[in-house]
Amino acid sequence: MSVPSPVELLQTLVRFDTSNHGDGRSAGERECVLWIAGLLRAAGWEPQLLHRQDAPDRLNLVIRVPGSEPDLPGVLVHAHTDVVPVEPEQWSVPPFGAVVAEGYVWGRGAQDMLWSAACMVHTLLAWGAEGTRPRRDVVMAFVADEEDGGAYGAQWLARDHPDLFEGLELAIGEDGGMCQTLTGLDERRVNVYTINAGERGTMHLRLRATGTSGHGSRPSGQDAVSRLVGALHRLSSHRWPLTMSTVVRAHYEQLAAALGHPLDSADEESMGGFVDWLGPEVAGPMRWTIRPSATPTVLRAGYKVNVVPGESIAEVDVRCPPGTVELVDQTLRELLGDQVEWEYTTRGAPLESPITGEWWEAMVACIHRHDPEGIVIPGCMGGGTDNKAFAPLGMDTYGFTPAPPDPQGRVAAGYHGVDERVPVSQVEGGSRMLRDFLEHV
Ligand SMILES: [Zn+2]
Question: Separation of 422 CA from ligand 1 center, angstroms?
C-alpha cells in the first residue's frame, strides 16, 4: 500500500466537519475516527475504538505500537479530532474545503490540530509499510471533545481506561516546538522553538446572588443584581501579582537572551517593556502566563425593566499559572465576599513539567537534528489542553508538535478564527520531525 502524504491526510481530515458546539452536543467525530481506523487497519494495525456508553458518536481511537525495548517507559502522543465552529460567511475559502493554495492548507482545524493528527497517522502508516518499530512503546490517541473540555474524550479515557496508558511516562500534544523566526535587538534572525512545559490551570466559577424581588421604583441597594455586580467589579478590577513559576521565568529569560534584549524578570516594568517590544504577534499568550486572570463571561438576571429580580447568576473564567492555586483560592474568597454564593464548576490544576532531564533533552535533540542553530526554550500555555487529563496518570506532559521554519516565512494563522491555515512545509516537515522524535526518544 502506498502511504498518502501528510498533506493529503490533512485534507481529508479537514473535510470531516467535526465542529464542537459544546453543551455535550456531538461534534460528529465518529466518521473522522472511522476513516482513520480504516487506514490503520489496512496498514496492519489494530486500533481500539472507544466511546462513552451514552455517546456512540463521540468516538475515540487509541493504538499502542509495541517498542523494540519494552522495558523502557513509553510515550503518549495525542491529538483531538474536533474543531471549533465556523462563521463561513467571513471566510474567503470554504472552511471544510481543504484548499491547498499559496503554500498553505486552508480550513477549520488545519492548525488546531488536524495537522498534528495527520503527522501521527502518517507516522503509523509509514511504520506499517516499512515494518519500522520505535524503541519504546508508543501510544497514539485521537480523542473527541477537546474543544469543550474532553468529557467525551481525554478526560473520560484517562479516568475510565487508565490501562490503555499503562507504562507511559511522557505525553506530548498540542502545541509547541514549532519554529518561530524572530529578529533580535541587533537585527540578527534567530529560529526559536518554544516547547510548552507548563499550562495555566483552568478554574471556572459560578456565582449566584439573591435578594428580595420587588418594584423597580423602590431600590433597596440589597438586591441580587447589585450584589453580583459588586462582587464581579471587585474581581475584574483586581490587580493580580506577578507570579513566576520555574517554566515561566525560564521562558521569559531565555527568550530575552536569545533576542539580546535586556530583562529583569523580577521587575514588572521590565517584563511589560519586553512583552511590548515583542508585540502581540510574537508574544502571543505569554503576557497572560505571569499572573492569574479572572474574566467574567456569563451574566444572567432579570426579565422586565421595572421588576427587581430575586436572583442573578454569573460565570467567571479564572486561569492560574503553575504554583498559584492557593493564592487564587484565597484571593477569590476575599474578593467575592459574603454577599454571593459561589462554586467551582471546573477546577483543573496547572501543569509544570521538568525542563531538564531525559525527555526534555530528547525533544531538544530532535529539533537540533533538523536545525542545529535553533534555540529551544520552554514556554507556558495561557489556556489548557488535553495534557491536563493525562498528567494525573503520572506522565510528564509537554506541548510538543515540532515543525521546521517555512522557507518563505509563512506561519500558521486563523486559529479559532477566520481563514485558518497551516503552511504545507509545517505539515511535511512536522511529520518528519514527529517520526524522527519517536524513533530516537
Ligand atoms: Zn486544539
Answer: 14
Q: What distance in angstroms lies between residue 133's CA and the mean position of ligand 1's atoms?
A: 28
Alpha-carbon gap, residue 54 to 52, rounded angstroms: 5
Q: Which domains does the chain have, with CATH numbers?
A: 6-175+385-440 (3.40.630.10), 177-200+244-290+350-384 (no CATH), 204-240+291-347 (3.30.70.360)
**pLDDT recorded at residue 348:** 87
Q: Collect the ranges in the chain with pLDDT lower than 50.
A: none
Q: In whole angstroms, what is the distance from residue 340 CA to residue 312 CA?
A: 9
- Measured CA to CA, the distance from residue 104 to residue 100 in angstroms comes to 6
Q: What is the pLDDT of residue 1?
A: 64
User: CA–CA separation, 307 vs 310, rounded Å?
Assistant: 9
Q: How far is the centre of ligand 1, averaged over its atoms, from the C-alpha of 202 (Å)?
A: 15
Centre of ligand 1 to C-alpha 175, Å, is 8
Please choose, from the candidates 32, 73, 80, the residue with its C-alpha nearest in 3D space to the C-alpha of residue 401. Answer: 80
Specify the 3-state DSSP secondary structure of 232.
helix
Cβ-in-10-Å burial (0-12, 13-18, 19+) of 400 comes to buried
Q: What is the largest CA-CA distance in the chain?
A: 79
Q: What is the pLDDT of residues 178-196, one digit of tens each?
A: 999 999 999 999 999 999 9
pLDDT given at position 254: 98
Span from the CA of 338 to the centroid of ligand 1 (angstroms):
37
Rounded distance from Cα 381 to ligand 1 centre (Å):
12
* CA 415 to centroid of ligand 1, rounded, Å: 9
pLDDT at 200: 96
Distance (angstroms) between ligand 1 centre and the Cα of 17 equals 15
DSSP string covering 93-112: S-TTS--EETTEEESTTIII
Cell of 328: 487564587
Is 289 within 8 Å of 381 (Cβ atoms)? Answer: yes
What CA–CA distance (Å, rounded) separates 255 from 45? 42
Count of CA atoms in the C-beta half-sphere (13 A) of 276: 6
- Separation between Cα atoms, residue 6 and residue 79, nearest integer Å: 15
Q: How far is the CA of 355 from the centre of ligand 1 (A)?
A: 23
Ligand 1 geometric centre to CA of 13 (Å): 14
321 CA distance to ligand 1 centroid (A)? 19
CA distances from 141 to 7, 82, 171 (A): 20, 13, 10
Q: How far is the CA of 416 from the centre of ligand 1 (A)?
A: 9
